[in-house]
Write a structure and sequence with these properties.
five-stranded antiparallel sheet, Heat Shock Protein 90, 3 helices, alpha+beta
Length: 136
């Protein structure tokens, strides 16, 4: 698959139960974008973390605010752009979840997981937009 970009998009209200929309979205893309089983797991976990952060932290579970997910495959890269309507966050100063002082905390691992499981993680718009890139 070269040259021609494929693009897919979903948008939903910032409610915790809408995380299922992301799983269904990715399941629907698996065959269309030729996502391997190995890549599927990393992609689903990363995207779920990003959308969860957008719903909870970005939009504060405000059902009037939307989360938008744009997926694009171009050549051998699948990218997901997740955008919320929040004010963003300081993504350069996040606590290290592997630090012994943070290891027992129940939260704070999402961005770490996204960095580990994706090939590239890019924040923009003060952190209210996240791009995850995966090489196929």
């Amino acid at each position: 698959m070269t040259g021609i970009a494929q693009q897919y998009e979903i948008e939903f209200a910032s409610l915790a139960e809408n995380i299922i929309e992301v799983e269904q979205f990715v399941d629907g893309l698996k065959d269309k974008l030729q996502i391997s089983d190995n890549l599927y797991g990393n992609l689903l976990i990363s995207l779920t973390e990003a959308v969860n952060n957008a719903i909870i932290h970005g939009n504060g579970l405000d059902a009037k605010k939307k989360v938008k997910v744009l997926c694009k495959r171009e050549n051998n890269v699948i990218s997901f752009n997740i955008t919320d309507e929040g004010n963003g966050f300081d993504y350069n100063n996040l606590p290290d979840p592997t630090d012994p002082n943070n290891i027992e905390k129940l939260t704070g691992r999402g961005v770490f997981l996204m960095k580990q499981l994706s090939d590239q993680l890019i924040f923009s718009n003060d952190g209210s937009q996240v791009e995850l890139q995966f090489k196929c």
